Amino acid sequence: MEERIDKWLWAVRLFKTRSLAAEECSKGRVAVNGATAKPSRSVKIGDVVDVKKPPVTYSFRVLALTNNRVGAKLVPTCLEDITPPEQYEILELQKISGFVDRARGTGRPTKKERRDLDEFTRV
Question: Which pTM does this prediction carry?
Fold first, then answer.
């Protein structure tokens, strides 16, 4: 049995909508067994799916196929998280130093943010 990758990503709650999952596949942010996957690519049980959500690349092993969206409690029966610990460390570092990297267009830092930034860069 096989299932479309965009449908499976949506069903196991990795993306909020199926169109979002298809869009990420089209952008080249989803790979199956190391090869970039188009939205119509089929996945089988045992395949390894890599999903790039910057700055982290998550890896999952397909345990079950489903075409219907599953409840959050049932997600572990459909996939196994095999993301290396280094990727989660990158995520933690990003959370800790989040205020240093300002999003474009958010304007100038407030007085408090400026002090925090100066203190952070001084150490």
Answer: 0.75
